[in-house]
Amino acid sequence: MKNVEDVYRLTPAQRELLMPPSPPAEAPIEHLVAATRGVLDEAALEEALRELVRRHTALRTAFFLQGMPEPMQVVREKLAPSLERAEAPQGLESWLEADRKRGMGLTAAPLVRLSVVRTSAEASFLVFAWHAAALDAGAARLCLEELLRLYQATREKTDAALEKARPFREYLAWMEAQGAGDAETHLKETLKDPRPTLLPTRSDTGTAPGVTGLQQLLLPATESGNVLAFLRKHKLGLGTLLQAAWALMLRHHTGSTEVVFGAQVPGRTAALVQGRPLAGRFAHLRPRRFAIPAQGTPLRWLRALQAELSEAQRHEYVSQAQVRQWLKLPEDAALFQSAVLAWEPPDEDTLKPLARAQGLGAFRHVASPPPCSLTVEAVAGERLALRLHHDANRFAPLDVIRLAGQLSALLDVLVTQPDRELSSLGEVLDAAGGATRSPATAGTSVGPEELRALLAWHPEVRSVDVRVEGSQLVAHVVPTRRRARKLDFGLFFFADEDAGTTDKYRLLLEAAKFGDANGFSSVSTPERHFHEHGGIYPNPSLLAAGIATMTKHISLRAGSVVLPLQSPFRVAEEWSIVDNLSGGRAGISIASGWVPNDFALYPEHFARKRDVMWENLEKVERLWRGESVTARDGAGKDVELKVFPRPIQPRLPTWVTCATDPALFERTGVGGYNVLTSLLGQPLEEALEKIGLYHAAADKVGHARDSRTATLMMHTFVGQDVDDVLDTVRGPLTAYLRAHVALMQTMVKSLDLQVDINEPKWADYLASYAFERYYRSGALIGTVTSCLPMVDKLLSGDVDEVACLIDFGVGTDAVLESLTHLAELKRLVQDESLRMQRVLTEYLAERLPGARPELTVRLTDSLSAEHPVPTR
After folding, report:
1. Looking at the predicted structure, is the pLDDT value of residue 497 above 80?
2. In what residue span(s) does the Luciferase-like domain sit (predicted)?
């Protein structure tokens, strides 16, 4: 045999995969997939692929199952794989399915391939595929990260500086050193009764054998954050939590306090993972037995399980075939009916930023489920994904829907009530869906009953009925609450610098026209002087006058006029001109100012700036009403002056810009003015609390609720994909946060840190941390539906208008494109029926990946008696 570097036998896990008792329907091909952003250097990618294959023996391995005394794996000495290119107008998912069916010839190394897949003229994907006998998902992730580092080095003509990889043969040597006798003894002690725990299954589904169904549940961001925070706090793994939860589920449905199911094991110890890179197939499924304590708390049990699982790692290379042999079971004996898999990124996830730097989106793992009746999969991410793959010939869709709901509820209780008694958790499962067995539509089809059950789980649905009406499926939904108020959306400009462009006002003018055509409430420009940040906005009235001539409906505001820097006569004149040019659409927010340099215009006002603001406001209001105001002329005489032209509006709509001072909020309310605030210097909760003070003060003196507006300025960028959005805004917003000392000081105070934010290393760290915290809790950044929970917070906090700050450093074209998605968010917020249709459609897409029936959503206040309401 030519071109051979090494030959050795298969590992137990490889043998189990390649020579199972029942051969799988298709080859176990897995993928890591990411969207491309921009043009890839395909020659550099191919060169990087070849260097990657040269580094790792596992990537140069072929498998020979016949023609030798025993199955062997052969490492080729030299290989030169090519980058593959594919067109997939039918879509990526169809291409991936076809690629899995295409498979890989076991004797034809390498058992990996790299493809650039174009689904349209605008969209393409980088796909890293591998045969499961060559790599597990963790090793594939390692190889992909090395590939991207090699790609970067090739493009930049530098050295990737990768450590020399270890050959896969080292893993075989480690296994042999463990001693089979010790592993056999450990297995017999821990597994004892090898009978798998069986959930009740159906014999009447009417589905052909081999059909797999999928039910997916994405936990809300808050619940996902609770899970990950709990795991970090108590130093637990996601796999430990999921295995414990599934053991409790099996106890609930079978009545057994000792349960057996399959669990994914790493196949090697933590010590073996450390050191130089080692790629290959290590992880696999094996049966596990769990004895659930009669008493105690979830946290105590989880800690004991974590220690037990860590101790068992040195024996986890043992395959299912070895388990059957040692326990004297038939070769085809089923060791488990259900299995659990958990996927979580390493503590230091370097793949994501590396992919971003190379113009790629976040990679996602795509793989077929293992061959068992029910596989429960948890995937960590911004939203934790729970996926239940099920044999549709044994489990009906409604049963699996209920299992998913129960599992979700149980996970939430385990992490939020870890000191609760284990014996009481059955109540949680009963409340979350009762017994698994209940009437269900047969087979894998999803009809009205299944849709009803799914929709009933949604937090915005109080009750629901799904009916067939003509050729349509219609969901009649009673929402959990009706929103009495609507939230207005305005556009706000504040902090951009001109960056040397000659078209400094393109974003402002184009956005204003878009806002006018799409029902936005206002466009606001600030007053800023003598600094590159915001320096293109020295006079909001001039900009508003320009916008007035190209718009018809949108309000034109100053956000803000710094009244201590202005003559009240000029303010009244200029904004009266804006009011006339716009047909009565002028408005201002006033501020006292705070930057000493700005007061070069009126240095005598700096010491009394707050008092001067109120004094000048009174004069502006009198002039706007047509009254005379006393002033001193050039000859030193007092004269009574009026301003012209006369405005259209009888009263100038006025906001007061309030930063953090509660007294200023209350004075604004007492005066009957509108309020404008922001999250520069205060978290959202504090801002909403102060808006409450404002409303209370206004109510106390008798100002009508509909006569005032509370406006909150928020950084805003809405797109189609969360990862794309974050990649777009991360750099600009992080730089913005770093430049605004007040924001940094607020965060340091909230974290109770003793650091100097002027020190570069702390400034960089805190700015990065602030971005992660700020975009989640203080901005409208994300997709249309991911921003809805933030909108609900604003409405609950008595906010009337969100002023969307869009010019914080993101490119003009990207911001203008994002406005279409922001307009869609505005439409959903202002139309409850449209919102519910969009939210529930996306929810069903999450829960039922792939084909599903179209559904029309209609809101109603109650359901008729003849249509029962499903209970959770």
Report:
1. no
2. 489-737
What distance in Å separates the CA atoms of residue 578 and residue 586, rounded to the nearest whole number?
Answer: 6
CATH 3.30.559.10 in the chain is located at 4-170
* Rounded Cα distance, 582 and 358, in Å: 47
Tell me the pLDDT tens digit for each residue of 795-814. Answer: 999 999 999 999 998 999 99
Q: What is the Cα–Cα distance from 86 to 115, expressed in whole angstroms?
A: 7
Residue 570, C-beta contacts closer than 8 angstroms, at least 6 positions apart:
none
Q: Where in the chain is the domain with CATH 3.30.559.30?
A: 184-199+213-435
**CATH number for region 488-729+780-830:** 3.20.20.30
pLDDT of residue 762: 57
DSSP 161-180: -PPPPBPTHHHHHHHHHH-H
CA atoms within 13 A on the CB side of 826: 22
What's the CA gap between 828 and 824, in Å, rounded? 6
Least Cα distance to 715 among 675, 771, 659, 769 occurs for: 771
Minimum mean pLDDT range among 439-453, 464-478, 514-528, 673-687: 439-453
DSSP character at residue 481: -
Cβ within 8 Å of residue 864, ≥6 positions away: none
Rounded to whole angstroms, the Cα distance separating 526 from 562 reads 9
State the fold for domain 4-170.
Answer: Chloramphenicol Acetyltransferase (3.30.559)
Sign of the Cα pseudo-torsion (178, 184, 190, 191, in order): positive
Determine the angle formed by the axes of helices 788-796 and 684-700, rounding to 10 degrees: 30
Q: Collect all residues with Cβ–Cβ distance below 8 Å to 761 and sequence separation of at least 6.
A: none
- The packing angle between helices 812-830 and 832-847, to 10°, is 110
Residues 6+ apart with CB under 8 A from 581: 545, 548, 549
Q: How far apart are CA 545 and CA 561, in angstroms?
A: 15
List every span in the chain annotated with CATH 3.20.20.30.
Answer: 488-729+780-830
Q: In which band, very low, low, confident or very high, does the pLDDT at 702 lie, cut at 50, 70 and 90?
A: very high
